[in-house]
Specification:
Pfam families: Pkinase. The chain is of the alpha+beta class and 78 residues long. Helices cover 38% and strands 27% of the residues. The protein contains three helices and three strands; from the N terminus they run E-H-E-E-H-H.
Length: 78
């Protein structure tokens, strides 16, 4: 299984942000970060293929519960 993140390239600065995200994911391999697999240009969208992580994103957690700053730092570190 893989996860696909779709980024629109029509917004201002979106191409630069997409390139930065690809470089960050590609160059920072860690067991604590999902693995970047490949990217595809589909019409005006960039599709990023990455390792599938069941359970959602850190952003999902932060929307669902209130965490203190230290708790957020510990989750990010792990």
């Amino acid at each position: 299984q893989v996860a696909i993140k779709i980024m629109s390239l029509e917004e201002e600065m979106s191409e630069e942000l997409a390139a930065n995200e690809i470089l960050a994911m590609r160059d920072n391999r860690s067991p604590n970060i999902v693995t970047y697999l490949d990217s595809y240009l589909v019409d005006a969208e960039l599709w990023l293929a990455m390792e599938f992580m069941d359970g959602g994103t850190l952003f999902d957690v932060l929307r669902a519960v209130y965490l203190e700053e230290g708790q957020i730092g510990a989750v990010c570190r792990e």
